Amino acid sequence: MKLRIQGNSLRLRLTQPEVQRISRQEAVQEKMYIGINQPALIYTLAVHASDDPMTLTFQNYEIKVSLPVSEALPWATSDQVGIEHRLPVVDDQTLHVLIEKDFQCLHRDEQEEPDQFPNPAASEE
């Protein structure tokens, strides 16, 4: 799972095996070690059983995004590319959250990216 943060925007990109885990309602988690004797930054995508809306928390060095099963399963088991939300944060600002399937690059050997989804634009070249 890739994490991209830019301003008030957070994007997670998942490979095929990671999306399959989400379809089984299993969490996907990564750790990024920043330095010696420093806690790791953890980022997690989870699925919750209730129909409560998507949540995003930051606690104990972990960014955790949790999707309702009613939203996660249709995405994980279809051709739907992404899930997008804007969450209210401070004042009148919002946090743009995007969860996407990770596609293979068009100009790289696909053997280097065996777990990425086939890029739909590849058939146009």
How would you describe this structure in keywords?
mainly beta, single chain, 125 residues, 41% strand, DUF7009, four-stranded mixed β-sheet, 8 strands, Gyrase A, domain 2
Question: Any chance you could write out the topology, listing elements then pairs?
Answer:
Elements: E1 2-6, E2 9-14, H1 16-23, E3 28-32, E4 41-48, E5 55-59, E6 62-68, H2 69-76, E7 82-88, E8 94-101
Parallel strand pairs: 2-8, 4-6
Antiparallel strand pairs: 1-2, 3-4, 5-6, 7-8
Helix pairs in contact: 1-2
Question: Could you please describe the fold and organization of this structure?
Answer:
- The structure is a single chain.
- The chain has 125 residues and is mainly beta.
- 13% of the residues lie in helices and 41% in strands.
- Strands 1-2-8-7 form a four-stranded mixed beta sheet. A four-stranded mixed beta sheet has the order 3-4-6-5.
- The protein is built from two helices and eight strands; from the N terminus they run E-E-H-E-E-E-E-H-E-E.
- It has one domain (2-106): 2-Layer Sandwich (Gyrase A, domain 2), CATH 3.30.1360.
- The chain starts with a strand and ends in a 24-residue tail after the last strand.
- Helix 1 crosses helix 2.
- The radius of gyration is 16 Å and the shape is globular.
- The chain has helices spanning 16-23, 69-76; strands at 2-6, 9-14, 28-32, 41-48, 55-59, 62-68, 82-88, 94-101.
- Strand 7 and strand 8 (94-101) form a beta hairpin.
